[in-house]
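Structure representation:
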Amino acid sequence: MLHEYETYLQEKGFSPNTVISYLNDVNQFLKDLHLRPGDYVTSADIRKWIQQMLNPVEGKPLAISTINRRLNSLRSFYAWAVKHHKLEQNPMKDIQDLKSADEDNEKIMWLTEEEFEDLLHRMRKKPVQSRGVDPEEKYRRDRAVVYLLTYAGLRVEELSNLKLTDLDLEMKRIRIVGKGMKVRTVPISNILLAELEDWLKFRAEMAKKKPHVAESPYVFYSQRSPKFSVRGIQRMIESYSLPNKKLTPHMFRHTFCKWMLKATNNDIEKVRRLAGHSNIATTSRYLKDSYSDLADAVEALPKF
């Protein structure tokens, strides 16, 4: 039954990582409650599982975002099972996502303008740890990656798969193949255009020296591969983290959404389209002020 569901997800165009994530979540649910895929499940079973995740016998409770992701995976699985007559009842019918407190929403982390400027400075100064790596080549590539993530809001998988033919510098736009093979077009700002032109010019020089670069159809490559892998990008971004702030590729996408809302005077629909969100509720999360924003507001109160 799970194999059929896996085939269904693949045929719907879900990325391999998404398929694995959905299946892992469903399998975790079945394992935790000692169930099989075709067993009769009720909403009470789901609520019991939620309580187990919130109050585990051992270890820390799961984050609200993780629990909601798992519930979404179950929602997809049981909707498919009922629709294809594998099961008669959908136990997720009355199960809502958990509401999170303000502190939980802080996990949607983005960079301030000062933090972004500091990151660029640290990238320029950070020594290369690996032998045989050209410091200038690494810096130029890493910088271009960070600018694309921040000024175009790409997901890490989208960035890894980005091809040279997806860039139209003359028309100043990027073609992005997102989740579920959905294609969106994002305009290239003048700031991003300058960075891309600089990188592509340097990349062309590297292509004369390295065969795997010359043969690569992708915008970004690694030391030995024609494609900069998702894990490679993640490791690169993490390497620039500060002790008190771990950096992830998705943090730059959050930054793009947050900065775009400010730039568009909170025009959620524009940001939703640029970010490729299917649901506007996803975009609306960025309307919530950060704790530092709230602290600044409190400090701005009249002083007597």
Observations:
- Residues 64-83 form the longest helix (20 residues).
- The chain has 15 helices and three strands.
